[in-house]
Specification:
With about 140 residues, the protein is α+β, with helices and mostly antiparallel strands. The protein has a single domain, classed as Gcn5-related N-acetyltransferase (GNAT) (Aminopeptidase, 3-Layer(aba) Sandwich). β2 and β3 form a beta hairpin.
């Protein structure tokens, strides 16, 4: 998710325990972890999947991310719901990874409905972010 607001520690911990996300982590060694999450969302009469990941260290190995994303996709495929995402336009490697995994770019010309949902749900502008959608049908 894209959130630019500062959150105090108590509210942050509370949110992690109260949200409806599936949360996983992959431990590379004692100090390095990659956290993955996913969630089914109902928004504007549509159901879809949103997900994300982050690591607690710089220079994350993208082969590991690819492996974990494939695992996550295989886990969620049976839900037969679209998976929407946004990627910063300056993050070319993650954009290429998403394209490799099957995500399609959404714009006003190819799907105005999904374009509006992604824009409103994530609250980011398409001049700064790619709007992406992965279909499981």
């Amino acid at each position: 998710m894209v959130n630019k607001k500062n959150i105090n520690s108590i509210n942050h911990y509370s949110w992690w325990f109260e949200n409806d996300r599936n949360i996983f982590f992959y431990k590379l060694d004692k100090d390095k972890k990659i956290y993955f999450w996913d969630q089914v969302v109902n928004y504007n009469y549509k159901s879809f999947i949103v997900a994300g990941w982050h690591s607690n260290y710089k220079k994350t190995n993208l082969y590991i991310i690819l492996f974990l994303q494939k695992w996550q996709i295989s886990r969620l495929k049976s839900k037969k719901l679209p998976w929407i995402a946004v990627v910063k336009k300056n993050n070319k490697m993650i954009y290429k990874l998403c394209k490799y995994l099957g995500y399609r770019e959404i714009n006003k010309n190819n799907s105005i409905k999904w374009y509006q949902i992604i824009k409103k749900f994530f609250g980011v502008k398409n001049k700064d972010f790619y709007y992406l959608k992965l279909n499981f049908n």
